Amino acid sequence: MDKSSIDDVVLVGGSSRIPKVKQLLHDFFMGKELSKSINPDEAVAYGAAVQAALLTDGFKNVPNMVLRDVTPLSLGKEDVGDIMSVVIPRNTSIPVKKTNTYVTVNDNQSFVLIEVYEGERIIASENNLLGFFRISIPLAPRGLPIKVCFSIDVDGILNVSAEEETSGNKKDITITNENGRLSREEIDRMIQEAENFKAQDMKFKKKVEARNALDDYLYNVRKVMKDDSVSSKLTPVDKVKINSAMIKG
Questions:
Q1: Quick count: other Cβ atoms within 10 Å of Cβ 56?
Q2: Each residue of 81-135: pLDDT tens digit?
Q3: Pairing of strands 9-10, 34-35
Q4: CA pseudo-torsion sign 179, 185, 187, 190
């Protein structure tokens, strides 16, 4: 399992209150926000109590215990290379609201396409497309951040919004339970398919990640080459060799 597979980071134990520990965790998980929905000192006790209740049917004897609805499938958007970027994992209690930040992949993009999927496949297009929308953005170098928010209310209605903060541009889509959602049988089938194709999908993901890493590297080389302080130190032969290598790449 790699860091990108982690959906939430839950703090457990008194040591997790130390600011430096929080900062190290935040940095280690590439800026992911740490979950603060539960007291770190009580997290283990809560988990043990819930597990004990489930194993002994003890929850039937707790009249005030609320059984919440959960998301039957993961919800997310297509990322670069047809990869499913999960925003709300399967079996998340609702209502829920989560926000992820994505960046543009091309210079001077005029819009970003947001395609919303539900499913467990790593390949986005193999999941169920719920809807899509486009948000206009200002022309800028690649790397412009776009905040994408998924929220589900108590009735299971999904709202997905995207916002580019510098311009204030924002757009959203609302998806109801009657709008392209799957039956219980279809959900079970998709979960089983995801398990069956897991190894194949992981190979696909690794190829996409390698291709994206190469693209990032070439982009940074071109960016450096445009810097006069660097290019002035290169001979014409060096420049030809570098350009030739980038074309082959």
A1: 10
A2: 999 999 999 999 999 999 999 999 999 999 999 999 999 999 999 999 999 999 9
A3: parallel
A4: negative
Fold type of domain 3-61: Nucleotidyltransferase; domain 5 (3.30.420)
Residue 224, CB half-sphere, CA atoms under 13 Å: how many? 13
Domain limits, the chain:
3-61, 75-196, 200-248
- The phi and psi torsions of 220 (rounded to 5 degrees) equal -65, -35
Q: Tell me how far apart the alpha carbons of residues 92 and 72 are, in angstroms, rounded to a whole number.
A: 8
Give the pLDDT band (50/70/90) at residue 168: very high
3-state DSSP percent of the chain in helix, strand and coil, to 5:
40, 25, 35
Instruction: Indicate if 75-196 has the same CATH topology as 3-61.
Output: no
Length, in residues, of the chain: 249
Element (H, E) at 198: helix 198-225
In sequence order, what are the residues at sequence separation of 6 or more whose Cβ sits closer than 8 angstroms to the Cβ of residue 95?
151, 152, 153, 154
Which CATH code fits 75-196?
Answer: 2.60.34.10
Which 3 state secondary structure label does DSSP give 238?
helix
Which pair of structure tokens corresponds to residue 46? 């809560």
Instruction: Read off the pLDDT of residues 24-53 as tens digits, 9 standing for 90 and up.
Output: 888 888 777 777 767 777 778 877 877 777
Q: 69 with 78: CB under 8 angstroms?
A: no
- pTM here is 0.69
